[in-house]
Amino acid sequence: MLNSEELNAKCKHESKSREWLNVPSGVMKAHPVCGKCGAVKNVSSDRGKKLSHFVMAFYRMKKELERRGYKVSDVQMRLVFRELPEDFGDTWSITYSAQKELYLRAVTKYVRVSRDFAESFL
């Protein structure tokens, strides 16, 4: 049996119903809800990105750090991406700002760089 996180990560979302939720401006807006897993669709302009966007940002940062003489190991890279939740790349339900926060927290935990430096590669 799959738990809800595994179901969200593997779900081909289908909008079956709508739920009225508050948006950041305080206005109620109808959000589509997946009939399979129950995930609420992100309808804001803050659209999520695919995981590959963050992998490429990490590689650009790694390349720049190595140019400066700091070696980032493959283990550090694996630890960063294992830290991210399974539904991280689910662009249907997650916002870019939430993804960015989770990514930056993981990078600064395992690689000795400032948050601003890591963010400059996104």
List keywords for this structure.
disordered N terminus, alpha+beta, two-stranded antiparallel ribbon, 44% helix, 122 residues, 2 strands
Please outline the major beta sheet.
Answer: 2 strands, antiparallel
Order of helices and strands: HEEHHHH
- What overall geometry do the principal axes of the alpha carbons give? elongated
| Total of DSSP H or I helical runs spanning 4+ residues | 5
How much of the residues is beta strand, in percent? Answer: 5-15%
Mean pLDDT: 83
Alpha carbon gyration radius:
17 Å
* Structure summary, number of beta strands: 2
Give the low-pLDDT segments: 1-8
What is the count of distinct domains?
A: 1
What would you say this structure looks like, in words?
Helices cover 44% and strands 12% of the residues. With 122 residues, the protein is an alpha+beta fold. The protein has one domain. A two-stranded antiparallel ribbon has the order 1-2. A hairpin with a 5-residue loop joins strand 1 (15-22) and strand 2. Helix 3 (74-83) runs antiparallel to helix 4 (96-110). The model is unreliable at 1-8 (pLDDT under 50).
